[in-house]
Design a protein that fits this description.
Blueprint lengths: L2 H4 E4 L5 H11 L5 E4 L1 H17 L3 E8 L3 H12 L5 E5 L2 H11 L5 E5 L7 H6 L6 H15 L3 E3 L5 H8 L4 E4 L18 H7 L3 E4 L1 H4 L4 H18 L1
Parallel strand pairs: 1-2, 1-8, 2-3, 3-4, 4-5, 5-6, 6-7, 7-8
Helix pairs in contact: 4-5, 5-7, 7-8, 9-11
């Protein structure tokens, strides 16, 4: 896997028109895009199909969680869309239903452990005992047991998770910020080089690229940092 394939740019914009313009500006600097709630609910699902048809990889960040049948039927349809990755909250029953539904499709299912916008205090408010690292560890173990294709976690827990899931599964880390970039609403962030060194296979970067005056240069800079980190590790 090349360095450019490890960068996933989040198209966190309000309209498909803006997403199309951003993809055009980025050109061949980016081959992998994330589409989440904001764009999905503005026509982004059709746009996701178009990206896939144009040869781009698409990470559909839906964080599914529902009763088994609903999750399974949703995953079956998403698998037909040509997506590369799909997120679910890492609850065992939902993951098992999704794995069965995606069988044979090539869709990589990712279990979301703890959101990078959450810290120990946020987890306590939500009713989870213990700290973020303990919950990430447990959910990573459950994802492996369920047969998931990989994990989404903070780069701060990447080394812990990589030791649990082994060398071959995807480990996707949001909350990536190049040196000097603002953390925004993220609480557990890391630079691209440190995330790769910690065991991440893919890095999700949105605002530092799409809000840059020169998005293509920003993406190229991150790819170069990834390339150096991979070579060093």
């Amino acid at each position: 896997m090349g360095a450019r394939e490890r960068l996933i740019v989040g198209l966190d914009v309000p309209t498909v028109d803006e997403a199309e313009r951003m993809v055009s500006r980025l050109g061949d600097s980016v081959s992998f895009y994330k589409i989440g709630y904001q764009l999905a609910f503005a026509g982004g699902l059709s746009f996701a199909r178009e990206l896939a048809a144009d040869g781009k990889q698409v990470f559909l960040d839906m964080k599914l969680l529902d009763i088994d049948n609903t999750v399974a039927k949703g995953v079956e349809n998403i698998a037909k869309m040509g997506m590369s990755m799909l997120t679910l909250h890492a609850y065992p029953k939902a993951m098992r239903a999704a794995v069965e539904a995606a069988s044979g499709s090539g869709l990589c299912l990712l279990g979301v452990t703890v959101l990078t916008s959450m810290d120990n205090h946020d987890l306590e408010e939500a009713g989870y005992p213990g700290d973020a690292q303990a919950l990430v560890k447990r959910r990573a173990e459950q994802a492996v047991e369920a047969g998931m294709g990989g994990i989404v976690c903070s780069a701060a827990e990447a080394t812990l998770v990589r030791n649990i899931i082994g060398p071959d599964k995807a480990l996707v880390t949001p909350g990536i910020r190049p040196a000097g970039a603002a953390a925004d609403d993220q609480k557990r962030v890391m630079t691209p080089a440190l995330a790769i060194a910690a065991g991440a296979s893919h890095l999700v970067v949105a605002r530092p690229v799409i809000r840059s005056e020169n998005p293509r240069a920003a993406a190229d800079g991150i790819v170069a940092e990834i390339e150096s980190a991979v070579a060093a590790n």
